[in-house]
Design a protein that fits this description.
This protein is of the alpha+beta class. The protein has one domain: Beta-Lactamase. 59% of the residues lie in helices and 15% in strands. A hairpin with a 4-residue loop joins strand 2 and strand 3. The structure holds heme C.
Length: 209
């Protein structure tokens, strides 16, 4: 009974932690997306978009970001050309087409793929996209920021936490069981147990629980 309850609790705790890890990674993806668009828009303003590889390389070298790419949508290609001409993956193409963010958690590789749209806006982080992207209207997908975030570290930390907790609970249960068994099998201890029970009753009534 107790063991089943503890195992159920552990499983629940683990799946909850996994969900939190993924939620945090999604939040991180949103941040990387914003930072990338802010940096690249600054480059658009200064006419140095061709140097975006320097920025992308730097972010790619940070701990958990395994891959980071910016792909341009039809309005940008039509106005400014194909750029680096990188071919989008089918998932990236879907986000370019429908403008809906895409997240996929590969639990085997422990990787979260995040593809977020960069939409034309009158005021995005203080910039007017339509001032230059004159062939687009508000809400059009100008491009996508595509990245892969490693969840390995976070998952390892979760596993370590749950295993440690399980060991602690198991050790605690073992000690309690041993104490009870020893107390019951030693008949001379039975009176001591009664005393403890009495004490426990009194403690409970004192503390009103
Ligand atoms: C100052 C003018 C200007 C503004 C403002 C501007 N862009 Fe651009 N944008 C450009 C130019 C020019 C290019 C193409 C550069 C090239 O091909 O080298 C471009 C390219 C892009 C690309 C493709 C980038 C790539 O790496 O291929 C995206 C996506 C984009 N813009 C989105 C936006 C969004 C979103 C905004 C508003 C926050 C915005 N732009 C504001 C001028 C601008």
């Amino acid at each position: 009974m107790v063991v089943t309850a503890v195992v159920a609790m552990m499983l629940w705790l683990y799946s909850d932690q996994v969900r939190t890890t993924e939620e945090r990674a999604r939040q991180q993806a949103e941040n990387v997306h914003q930072m990338t668009m802010a940096s690249i828009t600054a480059m658009m303003l200064t006419g140095t978009v061709s140097q975006r590889a320097i920025y992308l390389d730097q972010v790619r070298n940070t701990q958990d970001i395994n891959d980071l790419r910016v792909l341009r949508g039809m309005p940008v290609v039509a106005l400014f050309g194909a750029g680096t001409g990188e071919a989008p993956t089918p998932a990236e193409q879907r986000v370019l087409d429908n403008g809906t963010a895409y997240f996929q958690h590969d639990s085997e590789q422990e990787v979260l793929t995040a593809i977020l749209p960069a939409k034309a806006a009158r005021n995005y982080l203080g910039k007017d996209c339509l001032g230059c992207h004159v062939n687009a209207k508000e809400g059009d997908v100008l491009g996508v920021v595509s990245m892969k975030i490693s969840l390995k570290e976070a998952t390892l930390a979760t596993q370590r936490f749950v295993v440690n907790l399980a060991l602690m609970i198991a050790a605690g249960l073992l000690v309690i069981t041993l104490a009870i068994v020893t107390a019951w099998t030693t008949s001379s201890n039975r009176t001591a147990m009664m005393k403890w029970a009495n004490f426990w009753q009194r403690w409970r009534s004192c503390n009103q629980i």
